[in-house]
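We both want to read discrete structure tokens more fluently, so let's practise on a single case. Would you supply a protein for us yourself, any chain you care to pick? Would you write everything just below, so we can both look at the same thing?
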Amino acid sequence: MQAGETQFVVEGFRGANYLTQGAHSDMWGLAMIQSFHALRTELYLGFRSFAYSDTTPVTYQDANAVQFGARFRF
């Protein structure tokens, strides 16, 4: 089985005042998508990191996420 194209994704987001005045939110991520034309399939793997803070007394933990899966075309 011969692999097709490989794609790489870099993404980022920076937000301000999302829920409250003075709030800050950040997200960045990396992903890879591999095509297999003979199987009409794409496999993907990604990582994202999230952070949020605001001026309230509440503190928030940063979060990370890993996503993986496949897309089949028929």
Summary: The radius of gyration is 18 Å.
